[in-house]
Specification:
The complex is a heterodimer of chains A (385) and B (295).
Chain A: H1 2-23, H2 51-61, H3 74-77, H4 125-128, H5 130-134, H6 147-155, H7 158-167, H8 169-174, H9 176-179, H10 182-194, H11 202-207, H12 217-226, E1 246-248, E2 251-255, E3 258-259, H13 280-283, E4 292-293, H14 315-322, H15 351-362, H16 367-371
Antiparallel strand pairs in A: 1-2, 3-4
Helix pairs in contact in A: 2-7, 2-10, 12-15
Chain B: H1 2-22, E1 27-38, E2 41-42, E3 49-52, E4 57-75, E5 80-82, E6 84-85, E7 92-93, E8 96-100, E9 118-124, E10 128-135, H2 139-142, E11 159-161, E12 165-166, E13 169-175, E14 195-199, E15 222-226, E16 235-239, H3 240-243, H4 270-275, E17 292-294
Parallel strand pairs in B: 1-16
Antiparallel strand pairs in B: 1-2, 1-9, 3-4, 4-5, 4-8, 4-10, 4-13, 6-9, 7-8, 10-15, 11-12, 13-14, 16-17
Classes of the chains: A mainly alpha (385), B mainly beta (295).
């Protein structure tokens, strides 16, 4: 009994020691470089983080050869200086076709159990990457049916030979078809996206870093409003990522939150515009009309225009013309939406309070994040960007 | 060298295994079952329940979760013995457990897929005839930073506010009086389609919205003792229909949170807090709680 157990342990130990050597992970341990209070994100078992994948992903993310006419990269709609949004109400694809929704920030996207504004089934960054690349409704990067072209373009770039081989040594041994594939491309892009971590805003320094004076007096008053029962902001924009959609290594149960904020009431019964009905489009449940995923408010000062369709230009207007009114629709011909969340009750607000709340929201901007050279375009201007 | 360490580890493992099985065990494991109901009917996401409240409304719940703590088994002589909870890293932490009746399906979409309908732990071996528990989170755990707390105290859904701590009970529902077909429920800012019962501590003054208070004027924790409870086969039945029996779930008092969210001076709260056996706005409860009973 004792001998057998010992032999089993030896075998197990050998396997554990051998595995990293075989796969190369032992040589490339990705360091999340997170403050001690921040839990490590969850990562799919089949796509562990490595520096090599992040670096390859960064090159792909900024590479316009990923779009059919080589005019757009992922970064066209996810620009670092705008916290990886594009400043537009809705994004345009290579054909000029406008999508229905606003490009979302990628800051801390590693903590999201569900992605995009309105698809509760989209739970992995690897799968999500396929939508802008290959989607046809609307056309974004326009690569539908052109994946062979894509792989040929990537293989022709000398920089990628080294990057792909280092990021995917196992696939490299199996040949070029395995190495340049949708699997490797999406895994690398997803790894880069998971490395976009933003936890160094003035609010972080005040709340978690012990820097009592990192926030202005106005921002402190705004914090009280944000976490108060009059405005109720934090019910949906809770958690350290300021959204009720969250998963991480210390949270065994992923949390999802989809809400109708009463932005539209087209028919008196809460209808949203037909091209943008919220998750009802996927669930088929009429009770889900107008429900969208709560976005994170980190770096929100940089991510306007606001709401899923970019229909409100400023944070000031989001507060005054939308939330204070019990939803913007309340001011329209059909009155407030009966479908809106019960927490959207409206409130009276003074100019001072709006300014204070905006000051608090501005304190969520992480300047080090948007300037982080590790997140920047790796291609020199003469090459691709 | 390596094999020496392994031998050492193996020996230690075998020795500790012997210690566990070889000595007389003086504790017994317990698994106290909970069941949710609306007026006696089993709770399930997507189900509707008739005859709720003073208007005999039909409700379709969208969330039903609660924290229980300080769980004890009661001996025949009335002594209460604390259950030492299994620290499972998910549902139970120290002496608090999250009971979660919703499964993330249908109207409960914003919830979590796994449910948790029992409290698991151990007590000294003995004969037990009752159970005692507190609905709520103990003060010492209730006002920590929930964004960095361990599970199940890091659920954003159960996080209420920094001063109050957690929602001890989170029950959300639509009612047919608040539907989109009948959007006439009086509310100063227009109709809403939801009614909520959120129980939590109130009037917990603190220096700022994100700092812990030193005490709460209204802790609103609810300690229940079920003297006759079959520990092996019994169920702790949590019936929200009984709590809402004297409430009108089709209206919301103007200018207040939807339904009763425990805040002072909410006209929707007196009948609900009465049914929970809790004082409200300075008025003591006249009867005992009607939320929990043994089956």
């Amino acid at each position: 009994m004792r001998l057998r157990l010992k032999r089993g342990l030896l075998t197990l130990t050998a396997a554990l020691l051998g595995l990293p050597l075989l796969t190369g992970f032992a040589l490339d341990r990705f360091d999340w470089n997170l403050p001690a209070w921040v839990p490590i994100p969850l990562v799919p078992l089949d796509n562990p983080m490595t520096n090599a994948k992040v670096e390859l992903g960064r090159h792909l993310f900024y590479d316009t050869r990923l779009s059919a006419d080589k005019s757009m990269s992922c970064a066209s709609c996810h620009q670092p200086d705008k916290a990886f949004t594009d400043g537009l109400s809705v994004s345009e694809g290579i054909t000029g076709e406008r999508g229905a929704r606003s490009a979302m920030s990628l800051a801390n996207v590693a903590y999201l159990p569900v992605l995009t504004w309105a698809n509760p089934q989209l739970t992995s960054l690897e799968v999500q990457a396929l939508i802008p690349l290959f989607g046809e409704h609307p056309v974004e990067m326009g690569m539908a049916g052109k994946e062979k072209d894509l792989f040929a373009r990537l293989q022709a770039e000398s920089v990628y030979r080294r990057l792909f081989a280092r990021a995917f040594p196992e696939e490299a041994r199996r040949g070029l078809d395995a190495l340049y594939s949708l699997g490797t491309v999406t895994k690398a892009i997803a790894s880069f996206q998971r490395s976009l971590l933003s936890f160094d805003s003035p609010y972080d320094r005040y709340k978690y870093g012990g820097q009592k004076h990192a926030l202005s007096v106005a921002a402190l008053r705004g914090e009280a409003l944000f976490f108060g029962e009059k405005m109720e902001c934090y019910h949906c924009h809770g958690s350290f990522n300021f959204t009720d959609n969250i998963q991480h290594s210390k949270l065994p149960l992923a949390e999802r939150g989809f809400h109708n904020t009463g932005l539209y009431n087209r028919d008196g019964r809460g209808a949203y515009p037909a091209n943008n009905p919220g998750i009802a489009e996927f669930t088929g449940d009429p009770n889900d009309e107008g429900k969208f995923r709560t976005p994170s408010l980190r770096n929100v000062a940089l991510t306007g225009p606001y709401m899923h369709d970019g229909s409100i230009p400023t944070l000031d207007q989001v507060i005054r013309a939308h939330y204070a009114q019990a939803g913007r629709a309340a001011q329209g011909p059909n009155g407030p939406s009966p479908m809106r969340s019960s927490l959207i009750a409206g409130f009276e607000v003074t100019d001072q309070e709006v300014a204070d709340l905006v000051a608090f929201l501005n304190s969520l901007t992480d300047e080090a994040f948007i300037r982080n050279p590790k997140h920047a375009n790796p291609w020199t201007p003469s090459k691709r960007n | 060298m390596k094999s020496q360490i392994l031998v050492g580890l193996t020996t230690a493992a075998l020795l500790s295994a012997c210690a566990n099985t070889g000595t007389y065990s003086s504790t017994q494991s317990v698994d106290i079952q909970f069941a949710a109901a609306i007026n006696g009917q089993s709770f399930a996401c997507g189900q509707s329940y008739a005859n709720v409240g003073t208007t005999k409304s039909t409700i379709t719940p969208s969330d039903f979760r609660m924290y229980v703590s300080q769980v004890k088994l009661v001996r025949k002589d009335g002594t209460a013995v604390p259950v030492s909870l299994t620290q499972d890293g998910v549902w139970q932490y120290q002496n608090v457990a999250l009971i979660d009746f919703e499964n993330g399906e249908g109207p409960c979409r914003n919830g979590t897929t796994p449910t948790n309908t029992s409290v698991r732990g151990s007590v000294p071996t003995g004969e037990y005839t009752g159970v005692e528990l507190t609905v709520g989170v103990p003060f010492a755990l209730n006002h920590q930073d929930p964004t960095v707390a361990p599970s199940p105290l890091n659920s954003t859904a159960m996080f209420w506010n920094w001063q109050g701590g957690y929602k001890f009970i989170k029950f959300d529902t639509a009612s047919n009086g608040l539907s989109e077909q009948k959007p006439a429920a009086p509310n100063a800012m227009g109709p809403v389609t939801r009614y909520s019962m959120h129980l939590g501590s109130t009037m917990c003054a603190s220096a700022s919205r994100t700092q812990a208070p030193s005490a709460c004027q209204n802790p609103n924790t609810l300690t229940v003792r079920l003297d006759k409870f079959d520990v092996q086969r019994g169920q702790v039945v949590v019936d929200m229909g009984s709590v809402l029996a004297q409430a009108n779930v089709d209206v919301n008092a103007a200018g207040t949170s939807p339904g009763c969210m425990s805040f002072p001076k909410d006209g929707d709260c007196p009948p609900v807090m009465q049914a929970l056996g809790l004082a409200y706005d300075g008025v003591a409860a006249t009867g005992s709680q009607r939320l929990i009973k043994a089956r």
